[in-house]
Design brief:
This protein is an alpha+beta fold and 237 residues long. The chain is built from seven helices and ten strands. The chain is 33% helix and 33% strand. Strands 1, 2, 3, 4, 5, 6, 7, 8, 9 and 10 form a ten-stranded mixed β-sheet that branches. 37% of the residues are buried.
Amino acid sequence: MSTESASGHGVTRVEFSLTSPEYPFVGVSVEDGGRMVLEENVVRGDGICSEFFRVEGVRPERIVELAEVRDGFDARTLAGRETGGLVEVIAADDCPLQFLAERGALPVDAHSVDGEGRVVADIPDSEDVGSIVREFLESHPDAVLVSKRSGSPARSILSGGATSEFGADAMTDRQREVLVAAQEAGYYDWPRETNGSELAEQLDVTPPTLHKHLRAAEGKIVADFVERCSRPFETDR
């Protein structure tokens, strides 16, 4: 499940602007006028994270095309319409949200619109706000600090594993068990650390049974995302 700040503790909310089209979610806004909002960012390990974006105003396949020509990125369409859908962007080298999370900040929003990307994070009072902001700006030359203000903590969009809140309640115990095992074994890493046959042997099931459970679990996650895709585009969480 997604991480939340402890209730009752104050935070400093920082908002950064990103303009480099090297980030696919920014690039589609710059080049095609599309809009994207990050629903959840799943940390896979070894610096790799999966970013699940809701897309409007552009073909989801366009994000895949942009990711293919950017170093350190890959993408796939999970649900698509002519002018919108759901896309998973895999960031292998530079994930701004993970960069912030590793330094104690809790990402709460990321979106792009009108040719500009925005990243928002809550920094608990126990952390050094100035140091985190400085490190982020130094590591992301195109970034600009837009605002910094005190506030109450919000739900983080950063998740620590494959069993995010999306679709989790609809899964059977066995589906959840297989999905977690696949995540931990590196089945979802890029490139994969294990294949379906190896994972099936580890779980003492046949490969067809393994893929049946994985497809069912993934289908429930995607169905939940697709439902969210029908909601109006929002950038203010």
